[in-house]
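Field: COMPLEX_INPUT
Field: COMPONENT_COUNT = two
Field: RESIDUE_TOTAL = 227
Field: MODE = joint
Values follow.
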Amino acid sequence: MATKTKSKTTESVVLKDYESVIIFTPVLNDEQLKDAVAKYRKLITDEGGELVHEENWGLTKLAYPMQKKSTGFYILFEYRSKPDFISKFELAFRRDERIMRYLTVSLDKHAVIYNQRKRNGEFNQGKKDQKQEGAK
Amino acid sequence: MKKKSNATPAMVFNTMPEAPQKKKFCRFKKNGIKYLDYKDANFLLKFVNDQGKVLPRRLTGTSLKYQRKVAQAIKRARHIAVLPFTGDSLK
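Field: COMPLEX_OUTPUT
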């Protein structure tokens, strides 16, 4: 599922597309959350990856309680990195007590296109039912 | 994959079991959807019953290829608490 042609030819390593959703505990204040997010943002770029997109869903209600909490701060990173970076990245998540849960997914080419179109807001116009047409 | 059909916009999906006798179709193939977003709870809700269980293909008409993706997306959504594992009245 690597997006073969897209990575720069100058680099010897192939970067793959990934997406991580991180759920931080709701007990953090704004400052702490910002610090935590900055730390992971830095981690991605320091390890030779490139951040494609970052999204903050804010304090969101969970579908079920987790660690006795019913809300969490959702942060979404979409990035391109070397495959062996993921284990380091996730190790950092597991060591971090501020993180209640995380999910890293590798994106195939359809997902990358979908995310791009979603960012451009192509799914929200008209259509009584959202995104009937979905990603192409 | 399949030819890109230019989806006719207004269409009614019958995911309910007691739908009238109408030929079922795979909405992904029909609309050219190639990626299912596990973060989109509203869309995924169409593929679970009100207890939060995944609906079988025979009810939704989804093709096998996309049923696998639906199942995967729902499981991911549950993990990040976008969808509940169980529930009484989701809809």
